[in-house]
Amino acid sequence: MKSKKDPTTPRRRASVSKNGGITKAARVLSRPVSTSTAPSKPPTACNIKVVVRIRPANEREQENEKFDNVVKFIDNSTLIFDPKEDEQPFFFHGVQQKSRDLLKKTKKDITFHFDRVFNNASTNLQVFDSSTKSLIDTLMEGCNCSVFAYGATGSGKTYTMIGNSRNPGITYLTMKELFQRKEDLNAEREFELMLTYIEVYNELVKDLLNPGAPLNLREDEKYGVVIRGVKGHKITNPDELFNLLEIGNKRRTQHPTDANAESSRSHALLQVYIQMTFKNTREIRRAKLSMIDLAGSERGSATGFVGARFKEGANINKSLLALGNCINSLADGQRHVPYRDSKLTRLLKDSLGGNCHTIMIANVSPASMSFDDTYNTLKYATRAKKIKSSLKRNVVNVDMHIDQYIKLVEDLQQENSTLKTENQRLKKKLEDLAQTSTSMTTCDNDCQKQIEELIREKNEIKKQLEEVLAAKAPDSVTKQPNTYLIRQNTVILGNDAGDSFKSPIKIDPKIISVFKQTICDKKELMQREYQCQSMRLGMSLRRELKADIKSRLSSLYVDTPEKEEMRRKIDEQVDRYEKKEKATSTNVDEIQQKCSVVDRELQELVDKHPELLEEFRLANLEIDALNYKYKSDLKQKELEVVFDDHKDKSSVLETMAKLLKNLFLAVGGKDGAPESIKKQYHDIVAMLNGKKSLKWHETEEPEPMLEMDPAVSSASQPVSPNEEKSRAIKRKIETDSQLSLDSTFTQSKSPKTPNCKLGSKLTVNSNTHIVAKGKTPNKRLVGYASPRRCSPRTALSPRKKVSPRSKENNVRKVIARPDTARTLPRKATVSKPREDRPRFRL
Ligand SMILES: Nc1ncnc2c1ncn2[C@@H]1O[C@H](COP(=O)(O)OP(=O)(O)OP(=O)(O)O)[C@@H](O)[C@H]1O
User: Fold this and answer.
1) Cβ(649)–Cβ(641) below 8 Å
2) What is the DSSP-derived secondary structure letter of residue 390?
3) DSSP string covering 566-578, please?
4) Which residues pair with 190 in a beta bridge?
5) What are phi and psi of 51, to 5 degrees?
6) If you measure from the C-alpha of residue 744 to the centroid of ligand 1, how many angstroms do you get, rounded to a whole number?
7) pLDDT above 90 covers what percent of the chain?
8) Which of 335, 470, 539, 766 sits most deeply, having the most CB atoms within 10 A of its CB?
9) Average pLDDT over residues 734-748
């Protein structure tokens, strides 16, 4: 007798009828469909309908001497598992058992009740008639329906769902019925049907009708779980469905196992999307029918615990376990249901406890060899009976935009392919950008600057040329230049259709056009050469700086793998720069060759047409100017890089000096440090002193304009902008050098401050220090200055009240700008022989 406390003994619910267990809710839904616009009904709660199908024992099982029938069919809704009257010896895994379970019960003898039980003689048609046929009515109401076959491997799931040509499964029969119903209702409704057929294999979702990359699932607020990128197929009759099923099933992953020669190793899901539009009211109803053939649970021993079959088995079991957990949670009415534990449960989310009328077909084998599997299946089927779904019609307001399931899938497909293309495009773009960004960043900026400079320069040259032309023209022309040029049949030269060159000599327009084009080519080549030269210079400087860094650091490195790696990277960078430099050099050579060809052509043209001589001269002027500009720009760039490097080095030197000082003090300073260290320290300080101070040396250059009026001085020596710029950089370097001298230096030697009396003459020799103290030690300034430059009248402004700080300012000013004679007072009385004049040197 079955214990009352046994949780597996279900009590028959009032809603289950004797003949087939159709619930009340299902009966309500199976009422004939009204053709009028049915108002959206509130959700109807209904339980999952669970039917059990016992398959016939196969030959292999029957031939086994240990075979025993452990499932006894009682009636359409009842079965007994492991019936008591069965007193034959019981074998499990080939061993005769004394008792049949660990609880020492002789027989389990458990009675199970389900919505419907099919015995081993039942056909697929009978199963269909008593299970999924009723779903058609629900579908016609506009409600979602779902049917899934559950059971151990070889228990008959695929046979029930798909069947064979002689005995088609319930999928085909259901669809046939659907088409029949569609025919019946064609007069009043327009139908649109579309299906998708996918499999979940090893936790990957694959489209069986459109093979490709695994698909992703997406939670959609409106449509629940949607498979992204799945291809929908429109069908108009059941035969089309049958063809598609055949195609899909051929692609479905199947492998023979011990339990089943054609075991399905994946979960297959066929989804049919139906849209019905009522012809008279234009009401739209939508429904989704999901038909799922699950892979069978199995023991590892069935696959030999090895290889791909074992991995598949583990994945199948994992997803079925997740399904079992979901069933348990739903049956217990828990709020959290772990749908997300597997792809299968995510897909079945709608079917289990959602807005769906669900039928579960539990397939069992009657053989004692499958004792555990059958018992487990029956237990899960019993738990599943408790699951409630809330069923509601999917009715679309006729005024609403028709964004149907079909449309959604099509839209998603469209979106997916667009995103894919876009993704690929962006990926490629990113790769290209990454490749070129390094070189382009510098090159682009330089080019931009260059172009601007060129335009400016071109305009200047144009202006100058106009002036030259105006000067050359007769007086009458100067008065009326336009009429003159027109009268002389002027040919216009230049880069743009404007007024670059205006020749008063009559020249054949064709020749002038050839000439103009050749000049343009030449300029273009020059520009390209400049760009390449600029790039080559950049590479060369970078390479040299990297090599410099490596040699500087090599003495500091302690050999560790990281440092080795760093060294290796530097070497790689140096190699890379070298290669690029070589490549650019080759380009330069090529361009230069082309340039000479163009030059030759020009020369030949001019030789042939002497009337071009004047234009040629002017164009050459322009080219020379351009050449000069490119060269000076390159120098400028080089100087800037060197300057930056110098700045970095100064800063490192400064930090090192501080460290040196601290170390020196730490070992006892000048009083306590060992003599050898003291000597080394002072040597370094002396070296720093030598490196960091300004150097002045004898020169034969003309007198600096110390005694000149600043206004006169600047006016008489016009300075080009580039010259001015390089001077500024030099000044900057010098200033930084001075700033970095710091207190380390002052400690090494007590400097003497010159006797700086206001207005007095001062003879200061080249070794004299001028010390000025700022607010912080870093601001202390020490430097050598020439007697002339640092005359008290220069350093200490007589107009200001003299304070140590103002002295400092003045001294700094003088030191920072050794070439600014303008800062000196007019007619300074300090004089020095010509050979003693200092000259600034970097
Ligand atoms: N009701 C039935 N009548 C006759 N033969 C059946 C029945 N059910 C199953 N079979 C046979 O049993 C074998 C296994 O069935 P099927 O392949 O459907 O099992 P399955 O549960 O789908 O297994 P798997 O999970 O491994 O795919 C097949 O040869 C099938 O023809």
Assistant:
1) no
2) E
3) HHHHHHHHHHHHH
4) 277
5) -120, 150
6) 93
7) 10
8) 539
9) 38
Which stretches of 340-404 are DSSP H helices? 343-347, 371-384
Which of 125-129, 311-315, 544-548, 695-699 has the highest mean predicted lDDT (pLDDT)? Answer: 125-129
For a pocket test of ligand 1, which of 120, 125, 161, 260 has the largest count of ligand atoms closer than 8 A to its C-beta?
Answer: 260
Contact 579, 470 (CB under 8 A): no
State how far the Cα of 40 lies from the Cα of 442, in Å rounded to an integer.
67
* Ligand 1 binding pocket includes 504 (Cβ within 6 Å): no
**Residue 434: its pLDDT value, please?**
79
What is the whole-number distance in angstroms between the Cα of residue 174 and the centre of ligand 1? 19
The Å distance, Cα 153 to ligand 1 centre, comes to 8
Instruction: Write out the two tokens for 139.
Output: 């579908």
Run of H or E residues at 442: helix 405-472
Whether ligand 1 lies within 6 angstroms of the CB of 167 is answered as no
For residue 157 and ligand 1, the question of a CB distance below 6 A is answered with yes
Report the separation in Å between the CA atom of 211 and the middle of ligand 1, taken as the mean of its atom positions: 26
**Contacts from 229-232 at CB under 8 Å and sequence distance 24+?**
229/412, 229/413, 229/416, 230/196, 230/198, 230/409, 230/412, 230/413, 231/196, 231/207, 231/413, 232/194, 232/195, 232/196, 232/273, 232/406, 232/409, 232/410, 232/413
pLDDT digits (tens, 9 = 90+) for 469-512: 776 554 444 444 333 333 333 333 344 433 444 445 567 888 88
Given a cut of 90, whether residue 52 has pLDDT beyond it is yes
Could you give the ipTM of this predicted complex? Answer: 0.98
Higher pLDDT, 253 or 26: 253
pLDDT one-digit tens code per residue, 593-603 = 989 998 988 88
Ligand 1 centroid–CA 156 distance in Å is: 3
Q: Is 55 in the pocket of ligand 1 (CB under 6 A)?
A: yes
And the tokens for 324? 């079992």
Pocket-testing residue among 123, 159, 319, ligand 1, by greatest number of atoms within 8 A of Cβ: 159
What pLDDT score was predicted for residue 766? 37
Alpha carbons 602 and 594: distance in angstroms, whole number:
12
